[in-house]
């Protein structure tokens, strides 16, 4: 099955009606409607009602729709889940995940709601937001806590706050945390989504950060402005040299029986399973970027 | 192609109706109109002490037609100054032939209600007057709407005869040589009154800047001018020309503009020596921004850009992206400076811009035209004059002229504004016929007029996704719902002329309950 | 007391609810009334029905909101009104 690309997660405050029916025009891979930090306390209920009605009425097409709910320990978190899931929401982002238990609690709640509303149990998936040092350390357990977890994300703002430091443009204070999240996501077989970049006007800095995140192993980036979406997609678009090489590798792999220990050589180089996996990923990204790849189906 | 509309053959207060038959189907046969001859003697003086004296000397009387131009835009003092004086003098039954009317002209509503003004010819109408005409027929007869090219044509053809033309000039010498580029009230090109001056029986210049004879930069020369009056100020400088018009920051508009630029590139028209025109607002102007990147990358230099000229187009001229600008109306201070100082920024009359019944116009030399729209329907007809609730709130401008002239006409618009769908089943009024419109680009998709299979093929080849205009409509209505129909009476409150003088649509009075 | 929800921003609607009177009374102010007035009123009434509200005076000041926004704002305002009553 073709894997869903999650190169971009466009954050939109759920309390602004306009965002609820316009955000998909920027064609991010995912939209994340925010009920948490972007929504003031006295608008929490109104924003939830808006999002519920939007989910019932609006066709978001190919875009994967997430909601960032309030943490379950707040007054709003559980009600968010109880309202959104019956309205059709399939993807939740759980903020401030620190342990396996946070995920298991949500899992129990989701299972109960799914059963009550005749929704396939386990069909609602979860992205866990790792935003504290404790969360970083526990990120592998979090990612493996439930089959519902399809991705984990890193949030730098709360992380540095908890650590008692400041976020810098160089980002050295985040290096270990980001790497850990990306590695653990890889081990658990889920996507890793990088933190937001708040300075919308600093295109150059943003590009640098996305490139470094991609090199660390992140599958995508959280975006806070439509203009960032295209930049990320560009960075995640493989170049034609890599695409051609990947096509060769996939074709060679198809012609050989690698499972039985067959050896493949492309352009004088030995090809093994990780190389094939990387080639597949490159072609997925190429297709996601709208590049026509003749003959090879993935 | 004719439209599936039927019009009465005669309309009271307008005259005989020649129905629209296609963009270039109706050709003229008569001779050009000529105003009365004049004479002058050495030692003549044209400067008159005040407006009343100028009006009296010009022979103002009941039933006359007088003309104005809208280059002073929302800052204009001239229309109200002249009309207040005419009302004060007890004159009635005046027909105003304006190049357009803006929000600055709302006081006209009283002159209409009092019978001072009983006829209105304009490109556009907005605000209270537009609403009052659409719902009450305050004029008691239809407003005649003409395109910028159509107005020049009607004047040259003598279909509308101007008794007195009033021209605001920011610089004028004692014999009447004038321009709009010097002085405190500088507004740029004098494109519209260049026509009025040649065909009106009397021409009155109103200026706040009398300069020594001879003025060195002459937009309209003295041989057309009868009288000059000096006033404190011809307009509110803050509203005449704003600072440089910047490209929008609205992400939806930028997205539309970017897609439109991709369509232009894929269609093959963006090549060395191409010509281009775009509206000054929202997504239209932003298209230039993306074209600029492409032109840089491929080292393309265009021939000319035209239309309402903004500071952004001036930047493109100065940076060498286009060799010339052709300008009938200047939009901001930066563009005013440019038309004054840069010889490649060329002032042109409305006739040279867009009149279909002369020997050439710049609209017909266009490769690419970018238009905006209030509504566009499944026949690609565009409305930019009336709102979906039937109120008059816009203008024809040069849209029908340039759409007919350009090799490729692209409409850029959002799919909806405050729930009101832009893509509709049938436009409230047809202003620019679908025969002349090629592509629609919204934030949700791209539709090609089935008449342009060549463009469709080019976009397909470039891998640009398109959808039929019918599917575009369905997509929009999924969000907005299908609006209820507005009820109209059978009273005609506006006649929309196509640029060739045929009637393309009628505006009926809205039924109010 | 009236319970309110929404804003006067473009594409939004301001709904205020008073749980009084007999039946559902909807007073709509909107530039879009001739085009969408009927649909806006239906959206408000449907929401009341969904929430089992039988008597209410509802002021709707619309600024070009889509139906889902009308419904959501009505829902939140009714919720707030019910909270006041209880």
TrEMBL record, chain A:
Keyword Metal-binding carried by entry: yes
Organism: Fusibacter ferrireducens
Cofactor(s), by name: Mg(2+)
Keyword check for rRNA-binding: no
Domain HpcH/HpaI aldolase/citrate lyase: 7-226
Keyword terms of this UniProt record: Lyase, Magnesium, Metal-binding
Superkingdom field: Bacteria
InterPro entries registered for this protein in UniProt: Aldolase/citrate-lyase_domain, Citrate_lyase_beta/mcl1/mcl2, Pyrv/PenolPyrv_kinase-like_dom, Pyrv_kinase-like_dom_sf
Name of the featured protein: HpcH/HpaI aldolase/citrate lyase family protein
Gene Ontology molecular function, alphabetical: lyase activity
A family per Pfam: HpcH_HpaI
From TrEMBL, chain B:
Primary location recorded for the protein, binned into one broad class: cytoplasm
Keyword line: Cytoplasm, Lyase, Transferase
Coiled-coil zones: none
Pfam families per UniProt: CitF
Cellular localisation: Cytoplasm
GO molecular function, one term: citrate (pro-3S)-lyase activity
EC numbers: 2.8.3.10, 4.1.3.6
Top-level lineage group: Bacteria
InterPro entries, per database record: Citrate_lyase_asu (IPR006472), NagB/RpiA_transferase-like (IPR037171)
SUPFAM superfamilies associated with the record: NagB/RpiA/CoA transferase-like
Protein name: Citrate lyase alpha chain
Source organism of the structure: Fusibacter ferrireducens
Reactions catalysed according to its record: citrate + acetyl-CoA = (3S)-citryl-CoA + acetate; citrate = oxaloacetate + acetate
Keyword Cytoplasm among UniProt keywords: yes
Automatic annotation (TrEMBL), chain C:
Pfam families: ACP (PF06857)
Key words, A-Z: Cytoplasm, Lyase, Phosphoprotein
Main location: cytoplasm
InterPro entries (UniProt xref): CitD, Mal_deCO2ase/Cit_lyase_ACP
EC number: 4.1.3.6
Record GO terms (molecular function): citrate (pro-3S)-lyase activity
Compartments it resides in: Cytoplasm
Keyword rRNA-binding attributed: no
UniProt xrefs under NCBIfam families: citD (TIGR01608), PRK13253.1 (NF009726)
Name of the protein in its database record: Citrate lyase acyl carrier protein
Annotated source species: Fusibacter ferrireducens
């Amino acid at each position: 099955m073709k894997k869903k690309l999650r190169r971009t997660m466009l954050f939109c405050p759920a309390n602004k009606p306009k965002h609820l029916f316009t955000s998909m025009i920027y064609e991010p891979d995912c939209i994340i409607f925010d009920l948490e930090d972007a929504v003031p306390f006295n608008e929490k209920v109104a924003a939830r009602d808006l999002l519920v009605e939007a989910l019932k009425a609006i066709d978001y097409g190919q875009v994967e729709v997430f909601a960032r709910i309030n943490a379950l320990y707040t007054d709003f978190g559980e009600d968010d889940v109880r309202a959104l899931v019956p309205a059709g929401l399939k993807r939740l982002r759980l903020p401030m995940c620190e342990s396996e238990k946070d995920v298991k609690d949500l899992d129990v709640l989701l299972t109960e709601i799914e059963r009550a509303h005749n929704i396939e149990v386990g069909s609602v998936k979860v992205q866990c937001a790792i935003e504290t040092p404790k969360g970083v350390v526990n990120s592998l357990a979090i990612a493996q806590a439930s089959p519902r977890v399809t991705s984990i994300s890193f949030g730098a703002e709360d992380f540095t706050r908890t650590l008692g430091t400041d976020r810098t443009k160089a980002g050295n204070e985040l290096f270990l945390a980001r790497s850990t999240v990306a590695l653990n996501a890889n081990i658990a077989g889920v996507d890793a989504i990088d933190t937001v970049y708040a300075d919308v006007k600093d295109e150059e800095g943003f590009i640098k950060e996305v490139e470094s995140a991609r090199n660390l192993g992140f599958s995508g980036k959280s975006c806070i402005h439509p203009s960032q979406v295209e930049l990320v997609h560009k960075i995640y678009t493989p170049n034609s040299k890599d695409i051609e090489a990947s096509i060769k590798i996939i074709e060679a792999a198809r012609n050989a029986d690698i499972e039985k220990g067959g050896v493949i050589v492309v352009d004088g180089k030995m090809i093994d399973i990780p190389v094939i996996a990387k080639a597949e990923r490159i072609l997925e990204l190429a297709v996601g970027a709208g590049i026509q790849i003749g003959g090879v189906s993935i | 192609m004719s439209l599936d509309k039927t019009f009465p053959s005669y309309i009271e207060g307008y005259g005989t109706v020649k129905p629209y038959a296609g963009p270039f189907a109706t050709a003229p046969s008569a001779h050009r109109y000529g105003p009365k001859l004049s004479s002058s003697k050495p030692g003549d003086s044209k400067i008159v002490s005040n407006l009343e004296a100028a009006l009296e000397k010009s022979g103002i009387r009941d039933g006359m037609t007088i003309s104005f131009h809208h280059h002073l835009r929302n800052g204009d003092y001239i229309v109200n100054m002249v009309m207040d004086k005419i009302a004060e003098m007890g004159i009635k039954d005046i027909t105003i032939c304006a190049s357009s009317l803006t929000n600055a002209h709302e006081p006209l509503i009283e002159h209409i209600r009092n019978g001072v003004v009983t006829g209105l010819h304009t490109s556009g109408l907005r605000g209270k007057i537009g609403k009052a005409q659409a719902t009450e027929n305050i004029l008691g007869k239809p407003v005649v709407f003409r395109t910028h090219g159509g107005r020049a044509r009607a004047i040259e053809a003598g279909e509308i005869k101007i008794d007195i033309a009033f021209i605001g000039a920011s610089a004028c010498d004692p014999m009447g040589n004038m321009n709009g580029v010097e002085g405190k009230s500088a507004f740029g090109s004098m494109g519209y009154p260049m026509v009025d001056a040649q065909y009106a029986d009397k021409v009155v210049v109103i200026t706040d800047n009398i300069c020594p004879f001879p003025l060195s930069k002459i937009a309209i020369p003295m041989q057309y001018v009868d009288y000059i009056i000096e006033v404190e100020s011809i307009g509110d400088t803050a509203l005449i020309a704003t600072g440089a018009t910047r490209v929008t920051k609205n992400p939806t508009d930028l997205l539309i503009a970017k897609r439109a630029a991709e369509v232009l590139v894929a269609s093959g028209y963006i090549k060395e020596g191409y010509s281009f025109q775009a509206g000054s607002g929202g997504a239209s102007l932003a298209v230039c921004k993306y074209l600029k990147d492409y032109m840089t990358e491929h080292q393309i230099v265009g021939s000319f850009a035209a239309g309402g000229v903004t500071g952004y187009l001036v930047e493109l001229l100065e940076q060498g992206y286009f060799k010339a600008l052709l300008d009938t109306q200047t939009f901001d201070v930066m563009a005013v400076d440019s038309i004054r100082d840069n010889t490649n920024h060329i002032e042109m009359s409305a006739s040279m811009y867009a009149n279909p019944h002369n020997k050439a116009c710049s609209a017909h030399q266009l490769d690419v035209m970018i238009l905006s729209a209030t509504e566009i329907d499944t026949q690609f007809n565009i409305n930019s004059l009336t709102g979906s609730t039937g109120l008059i709130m816009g203008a024809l401008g040069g849209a029908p002229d340039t759409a007919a002239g350009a090799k490729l006409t692209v409409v850029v618009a959002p799919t909806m504004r405050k729930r009101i769908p832009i893509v509709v089943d049938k436009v409230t009024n047809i202003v620019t016929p679908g025969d002349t419109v090629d592509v629609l680009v919204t934030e949700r998709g791209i539709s090609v007029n089935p008449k342009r299979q060549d463009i469709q093929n080019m976009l397909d080849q470039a891998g640009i996704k398109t959808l039929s205009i019918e599917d575009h409509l369905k997509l929009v209505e999924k969000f907005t719902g299908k609006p209820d129909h507005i009820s109209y009476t059978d009273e005609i409150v506006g006649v929309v002329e196509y640029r060739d003088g045929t009637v393309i649509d009628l505006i009926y009075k809205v039924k109010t309950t | 007391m009236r319970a309110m929800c929404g804003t006067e921003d473009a594409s939004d609607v301001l709904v205020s609810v008073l749980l009084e009177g007999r039946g559902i009374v909807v007073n709509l102010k909107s530039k879009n009334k001739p085009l969408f007035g009927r649909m806006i009123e239906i959206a408000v009434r449907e929401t009341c029905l969904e929430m089992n509200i039988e008597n209410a005076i509802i002021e709707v000041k619309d600024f070009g909101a889509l139906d889902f926004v009308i419904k959501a704002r009505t829902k939140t305002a009714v919720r707030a009104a019910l909270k006041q009553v209880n």
